[in-house]
Design brief:
This protein is of the alpha+beta class and 449 residues long. It has 11 helices and 12 strands. The strands form 3 sheets. A 5-stranded antiparallel beta sheet has the order 2-1-5-4-3, with helices on both faces. A 5-stranded mixed beta sheet has the order 7-9-10-12-11, covered by helices on one side. The longest helix has 59 residues. It is rod-shaped.
């Protein structure tokens, strides 16, 4: 029995008592006694009904109190679970306005709960991702109308208050009322910045290991090709030295001075060729071990070029005509003398080697805007267009090189030396017409003449 039933019962009882009172005023004494007895009977029944109603009401009150206690306990348990979740846990309305937040969420976003509640969650998204996050939130609201809507997951970069951005894994679930209408969203945010950094480090380590294995394989192949090439290239000059030395040993007393000098020149040429091969191998090995460095020093370009030309003409024995020209605003420069010699010597060696005896090689040097520009032009066999893009690779030789001796290291060394200077090399060539090499080297700015 509820309170409305009890009130109705009391109202009916009052009506019956009032009726009995009116009747008692109109009856005689005997009838009064009977009427009073009836009244007492009615009152007794009413009291019994009131007693029962009171007991029912007490039981209902007790059940209601127990239900309220259970509800309070459940709410407290929910709040404890809400706060004890190790990850940031937020509740927002469908538009993303924060309504509840646990302590982990305030720690993650580095802001107090009082300042967090009532704010849009998207304001804590980094600026470049804010529009994308807003569109995803709209999509969530639209998609949430479907009853089978499940938890959505993605990653987002958040900007905590006065801290560096963090990468966060997001899980979003719908909150619905009894009519299955969307009334809010539950957000679970987990900082994965460290795991992302670890993953990136692992990927970097894997890539570094892969590159190291590729490099090791390349180095192994390079070493094998180097040994094969050196053994082949050294065989001819060594044979020439050996044969000329034997002939001089046994027959020099029978030969004229001119004939003796021919064999001496052969020995000298072979020794110079082997020396050049060893220098090339040394430079290549230094680059492979990353010990090849740029050491710029002050030098006079004109003096350097003239000394180099004198050496080249002696080694070439004047078989080619070398035409030198210069247009230098200043003869002072800051360049690595050793590497510059490697660059020009190798380029000249190629030009002389692949040009007919008696042909001319043009060499020019100019300076402008703190740069030295060297140009060497021959009228030799030329380089096929299909080979030009590969000529700077170690051991690569042009397809038309034929039996002309060479290891295919010179151009690789030239490119490495030019790169160390921060310079540029340009190759222009045509079959049967010749080749022009242009080398542009900027002066080092940490030295002054």
């Amino acid at each position: 029995m509820n309170l409305d039933d009890l009130a109705l019962l009391l109202q009916n009882m009052r009506k019956r008592v009032a009726l009995l009172q009116r009747q008692s005023e109109q009856q005689k004494a005997q009838e009064d006694i009977e009427l009073v007895a009836a009244v007492f009977q009615e009152i007794h029944l009413a009291l019994e009904e009131l007693q029962i109603a009171n007991e029912n009401l007490q039981q209902q009150n007790e059940e209601l109190f127990n239900a309220q206690q259970d509800l309070v306990a459940q709410g407290q348990h929910y709040q404890e679970l809400f706060e004890e979740v190790p990850d940031a846990y937020l509740v927002t309305d469908p538009k993303g306005v924060i309504q509840e937040a646990n302590s982990a969420a305030t720690t993650l976003l580095n802001i107090s709960k009082s300042l967090l509640l009532g704010k849009l969650l998207e304001i804590y998204v980094v600026e470049k991702e804010m529009i994308d996050f807003h569109l995803k939130l709209i999509h969530l609201r639209d998609y949430a109308e479907i009853s089978k809507w499940k938890i959505q997951e993605w990653e987002v970069n958040l900007q905590p208050y006065k801290r560096t951005p963090i990468i966060t894994a997001v899980k979003v679930a719908a909150i619905r009322n009894q009519q299955a209408k969307l009334v809010g969203l539950r957000w679970l945010l987990h900082d994965i910045s460290e795991s992302k950094r670890t993953q990136a480090k692992l990927q970097w380590a894997e890539e570094a290991m892969r590159q190291a294995l590729v490099k090791e394989k390349q180095f192994s192949e390079l070493k094998s090709r180097l040994i094969t090439t050196i053994s082949h290239e050294f065989r001819n000059p060594l044979a020439t030295i050996h044969s000329s030395a034997e002939l001089l040993e046994h027959y020099r007393h029978l030969w004229t001075k001119e004939r003796q000098n021919i064999h001496l020149h052969r020995i000298q040429t072979s020794v110079m060729h082997m020396t050049q091969l060893l220098n090339d191998v040394l430079v290549l090995s230094q680059d492979e071990t990353r010990s090849l460095e740029l050491n710029p020093t002050p030098l006079n370009l004109m003096e350097f070029c003239r000394d180099l030309l004198e050496e080249l003409e002696q080694s070439d024995r004047s078989q080619h005509g070398i035409i030198f020209s210069s247009e230098c605003q200043s003869t002072a420069a800051n360049l690595d003398v050793k590497l510059l010699r490697q660059i020009l010597s190798n380029l000249f060696s190629n030009c002389l080697k692949y040009s007919l005896i008696g042909s001319k090689v043009k060499f020019s040097v100019t300076t402008a805007n703190d740069q030295a520009i060297f140009q060497i032009q021959d009228s030799g066999i030329g380089i096929p267009s299909s080979d030009i893009e590969h000529i700077f690779k170690p051991f690569h030789r042009a397809s038309n090189a034929g039996n002309i001796p060479g290891m295919g290291l010179g151009m690789s060394i030239v490119k490495q030396a030019v790169d160390l200077h921060g310079g540029e090399i340009i190759v222009e060539s045509a079959i049967g017409v010749g080749t022009t090499f242009t080398v542009i080297l900027p002066f080092s700015r940490n030295l002054y003449i």
